């Protein structure tokens, strides 16, 4: 029976067997950056890991395909959060090289498909992931693709706050963390945060260079006080549908 397997907890013979069986690899990617005064710095990675597990379970059950979840990439391009303590960033070229090398290693051991699960929405980060996936696919036998929730195809299915662009550490992300690792949310702090309806995506398009310039002096945008675990679970269901569809389409073409 197909199942979900965590690569970092496996032995090498187990990994070899799964590669030979045609298992799909999900690679969670995220960041270590400020997410308001109420969410952990690893928020984006927490979301990607949780989404990988939930999507993996759906793929294994519905499609009968084994899923291998690779250890996450905890760092990304984090220029917008750079003014805030604890933010650790990579240059785009570093992130591209890292993902290319991981994909090449998976390729060398016989895996044929890796899907990058991403929840860090900084534009330069997403561009770097897509560039890495494209170059990795061109360089070897493996197919690498990005499940991109900022793609209009998927973004239009998500919450109103997400679509407004005012969604960094707001209701959208707070809800998702509450549904996955609630003990990491400082809800006593979140409940006291005033709404910040400034659209981060609009500010980026108009030249803002960091969260402060974009109108987020405390590194959050949106409505964190309104986050709930129920909304988080409902949003994960939508994101799982995205990942499952991306995997199915990639398996057809790979």
Architecture overview:
The protein has 254 residues and is of the alpha/beta class. It has a single domain (4-253), classed as Rossmann fold (3-Layer(aba) Sandwich). The protein contains ten helices and five strands; from the N terminus they run E-H-E-H-E-H-E-H-E-H-H-H-H-H-H. It has a five-stranded parallel sheet with strand order 1-3-2-4-5, sandwiched between helices. Strand 2, helix 2 and strand 3 (67-69) form a beta-alpha-beta unit. Helix 2 crosses helix 7, helix 2 crosses helix 10 (229-253) and helix 3 runs parallel beside helix 4. The longest helix has 25 residues, at 229-253.
Set down the secondary structure blueprint.
Layout: E1 4-6, H1 12-21, E2 24-29, H2 43-63, E3 67-69, H3 92-108, E4 113-118, H4 123-139, E5 143-147, H5 152-155, H6 160-164, H7 171-180, H8 187-190, H9 200-205, H10 229-253
Parallel strand pairs: 1-3, 2-3, 2-4, 4-5
Which descriptors apply to this entry?
254 residues; alpha/beta; Rossmann fold; 5 strands; globular
CATH homologous group name: Creatininase
Main sheet: strand order = 1-3-2-4-5
Shape: globular
Helical coverage, percent range:
40-55%
Query: What name does the CATH topology carry?
Result: Rossmann fold
Count of structural domains = 1
Separation, N- and C-terminal Cα atoms: 23 Å
Unreliable runs, pLDDT <50, ≥5 residues?
A: none
Mind describing the biggest β-sheet? 5 strands, parallel
Enumerate how many helices there are, as a single number: 10
Helix-strand category: alpha/beta
CATH class: Alpha Beta
Question: Rounded to an integer, what's the Rg over CA atoms?
Answer: 18 Å
- The residue-averaged pLDDT reads 97
CATH architecture: 3-Layer(aba) Sandwich
């Amino acid at each position: 029976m197909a199942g979900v397997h965590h690569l970092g907890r496996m032995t090498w013979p187990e990994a070899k067997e799964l590669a030979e069986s045609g298992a799909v690899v999900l690679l969670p990617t995220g960041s270590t950056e400020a997410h308001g005064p109420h969410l952990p710095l690893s928020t984006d990675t927490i979301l990607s890991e949780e989404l990988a597990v939930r999507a993996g379970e759906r793929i294994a059950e519905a499609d009968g395909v084994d899923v291998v979840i690779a250890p996450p990439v905890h760092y990304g391009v984090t220029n917008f959060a750079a003014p805030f303590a604890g933010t650790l960033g990579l240059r785009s070229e570093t992130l591209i090289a890292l993902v290319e090398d991981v994909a090449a290693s998976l390729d060398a051991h016989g895996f044929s498909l890796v899907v990058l699960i991403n929840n860090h929405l900084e534009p330069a980060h997403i561009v770097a992931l897509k560039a890495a996936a494209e170059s990795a696919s061109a360089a070897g036998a493996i197919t690498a693709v990005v499940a991109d929730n900022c793609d209009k195809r998927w973004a239009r299915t998500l919450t109103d706050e997400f679509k407004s662009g005012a969604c960094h550490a707001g209701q959208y992300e707070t809800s998702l963390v509450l549904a996955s690792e609630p003990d990491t949310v400082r809800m006593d702090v979140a409940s006291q945060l005033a709404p910040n309806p400034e659209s981060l995506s609009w500010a980026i398009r108009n030249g803002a260079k960091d969260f402060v310039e974009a109108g987020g002096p405390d590194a959050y945008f949106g409505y964190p006080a309104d986050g709930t675990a129920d909304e988080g679970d409902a949003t994960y269901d939508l994101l799982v549908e995205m990942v499952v569809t991306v995997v199915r389409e990639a398996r057809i073409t790979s």
